[in-house]
Amino acid sequence: PGRAVGDGAGAGAPAPAWETWSPWLLMAAIWGVNQWVEDLSLSPSLPPTPEEPRGWESGGQERPWPAPPHTRVPLSPQTGTLTEDGLDVMGVVPLKGQAFLPLLPEPRRLPAGPLLHALATCHALSRLQDTLVGDPMDLKMVESTGWVLEEAPAADSVLGAPVLAVMRPPPREPGLQGTPPAPVSVLCRFPFSSALQRMSVVVARPGAAQPEAYVKGSPELVAGLCDPETVPPDFAPVLQSYTAAGYRVVALASRTLPVAPSLAVAQQLTRDAVERELSLRGLLVMRNVLKPETTPVIQTLRRTHIRTVMVTGDNLQTAVTVARGCGMVDPQERLVIVHATHPEQGRPASLEFLPVESSVAVNGAKATSCAVEPDPRCSHLALSGPTFAVLVKHFPKLLPKVLVQGTVFARMAPEQKTELVCQLQKLQYCVGMCGDGANDCGALKAADVGISLSQAEASVVSPFTSSMASIECVPVVIREGRCSLDTSFSVFKYMALYSLTQFISVLILYTINTNLGDVQFLAIDLVITTTVAVLMSRTGPALALGRARPPGALLSVPVLSSLLGQVALVAGVQLGGYFLTTAQPWFVPLNRTVPAPDNLPNYENTVVFSLSGFQYLILAAAVSKGAPFRRPLYTNVPFLVALALLGSILAGLILAPGLLQGPLALKNIADTCFKLLLLALVAFNLVGAFLLENVLDQCLPACLRRLRPKRTSKKRFKQLEQELAQQPWPPLPAGPGR
Length: 738
Known about the structure:
The protein is of the alpha/beta class. The strands form 5 sheets. The protein has a 9-stranded mixed beta sheet with strand order 17-16-20-21-15-1-22-23-24. A 9-stranded antiparallel beta sheet has the order 3-2-14-13-12-11-10-9-6, sandwiched between helices.
């Protein structure tokens, strides 16, 4: 309104500036906002989930979601995760009277008796096609005795009870004294229970009038079920001498059962009736060496300020030694054992903190020092499952402090592992769990990131199943997660910048009563944007895990600063190209009385379309920077090929439009110097976009730290860390005798 009607050259009295700009500003703003929202919500190039992690399986299929990139506490069991899957039998420690005998390296050389029978029968192995299958520890134990398992016929019975299996001794070795052992029939099995930490069997020997029960399990619990007179006074020191060296120790005990008066009574035999009034028979010592990958991975996680925690069902002393050996606890760092007792006989529950000496060997190997400067104010806490239960029930206020500094959690039942994960999540930790057994299923399911190292039970409940049977997968998952989040932010930024770039182009053209053509819109949306948006997300994760973490929110200062800076650069280049065009002596304005697309082609549209086409490519490359979360841009070969091909086509449209001039409604520009000037503007835009991203990455964090005061973290665990750093904690006993 208010414009004078002129000829094809647009002659006539110009309308007031505000009347010319205001309606088109309003229309373009409404169109641009709607277009941005549609692009962010409906564009096929922005996936509903981040980039899929590579090399992971879950139930035989790739999972469509990555690990959270801000994982703070990876939890790992010991056996099979930090240490080798198989256990090697180091030997047995027989018990004679009230004294332990020296370690016997070859259990098969034991004389016939309860200890040998316990080793040969107290297991849950079975035979499948002439192959023994079952727990690896049971396989090693039976293999060390040389006894052979035979499945018993269904009709066999001994002492009125059906026979489950028969264990036959090997041929007698020359030079051994004593009566040759006889076959033993297994009548009943009570399988291993993680909560009870033991298993038992009921057996019968030929010629024996009464059945016998054999029990194996954790030394502390088995000793508690034994007659105190059969437990030697040096039980604890002998046990500690092996566990302190990182060996796994299993106690063996036996008991003679009364003969059942009938088969029905025998079949109703309960576990509690079998596992009581036992006699301790000896200790089985097994060697469990660290995996070669464990120590380097722990060092990598600690260097990147990712806290590592061990949660295991093994002995506390063994777990502590393994933690020191793999560098989870540095030899120079202080380790404190937390011990709690339940209230009893009118006494309240008690809690004490006991410092322990540094252990320097694991199975005879020297402990590895992690290349991390130890904090003298920091203490690593180690506690057992019973202590953890007391803390949860009777010391809920102290529990968060213990969890913040807890590194070793031993003798943990499956439900306690799950509870530990939940308690850490209450402190706003992002918890990762890496396990390989059925005991870890609950914790794997509860964790923010569950990684199974086994194709069996644990793989069913965990989001990720690793093809690598070691904790090497943990840094890989974290790198994949960070790459996925950074890629998602990059795609978001690109889609936002793409919409704003097109909005600026349309806004400039609306002010002169023209617009982009339909084919031009199609070329931008379908050919340029879709191609680069799909391919830009194919850059892989960084090869090394760093300390930096990607932003946790879209509305963050780095993301918004990048958006605003790039938009300003895009607008400046397009406006610069527009005004340079209007200043040329050969420039002929379009006829504003004719609406678009009837006034196409024209010089203004041609220049704006040509520059904006390059800007879509430049923005895609600028927001796809590699470090620190992704590999360099040049590793994404399909993306580079697409950029080069599309850039060549756009350069050809400027220099020599040819056959595409008609379909795209482009105006031929005969001035070669002006064409080169447009390409110089493109080069300026390219350098400016990359320079802006680098400046924001390197200078913005330091500027923000200087401009705004240091704020207290909202994370609960961060607040506790700051609180504990300002006070002497944990409270240690003053007396050296404690």
